[in-house]
Amino acid sequence: MRHFLRAAAILGAGLVLLAADEAPLSLDTGDISGEFGTYAADEPATAPMTPDSAFEVIDQTPPHAAPEIGPLLPQAATLAGMVAELRDAGPIDLDDEMLCLATAVYFEAKGEPLDGQLAVAQVILNRVEAGRFGRDICAVVKAPRQFSFVRGGAMPAPRGAAQWETAQAIALIAAGGGWREIVGEATHFHATYVNPGWKMRRVATVGRHIFYR
User: Fold this and answer.
1) What pairing do the DSSP bridges indicate for beta strands 38-40 and 202-206?
2) What sign does the CA torsion over 89, 93, 95, 101 have?
3) Are 213 and 187 in contact (CB under 8 A)?
4) How far apart are the first and last CA of the chain?
5) Per residue in 132-168, pLDDT tens?
6) pLDDT one-digit tens code per residue, 188-207
7) Using CA of residue 86, residue 164, residue 77, residue 15, what is the dihedral sign?
8) What is the CA radius of gyration of the chain?
9) Hey, which of 64, 119, 128, 157 has its CA 20 to 30 A from 163?
10) What sign does the dihedral 197-181-76-7 (CA atoms) show?
11) Could you state, in order of their start, the residue ranges of all structural domains in the chain?
12) How far apart are CA 10 and CA 132, in angstroms?
């Protein structure tokens, strides 16, 4: 499920790359097409080919490799470098799911270090994968009494341009699996200055958030 979400999210954002090493298929002008096969112009004619032998030749011909299409994420040695490259690439066109994820990152973690922001995004994706918190990213984010910035199922619009650009980049990196898992399979987190008394396994503390599963 996670891989499907990541692929769909990145494709929805329009970041796809045609990655094929093969040159376009072309025909040699010296070939002469016959009824059941193709002969080189400088080769002598042999015994007539039967339909069966023609199909054998066709079946034994290696098929031309189809181009591969995959998500395009920057290759960077650091998370900060990856975020910077995505931001420098210009405005990002987010679909509804990525918009929900980026908005949650912005309001829940915009003041956190980058790995803390990524951890929040990964928690939301973990919740979608778990299946009991919502059927998709927006359902998880807008679920009642889960994220305090959501009021009556509605999300406010981000205001800080620079922090919003970072949140969008973090959302794409999380959904595309562009960086390592920060908090494993954590599905919950809270600020370090509160103590809700959750009876769950503590996974990690990143920035000012504690993560649980």
Assistant:
1) unpaired
2) positive
3) yes
4) 18
5) 999 999 999 999 999 999 999 999 999 999 999 999 9
6) 999 999 999 999 999 999 99
7) negative
8) 26
9) 128
10) negative
11) 74-212
12) 24
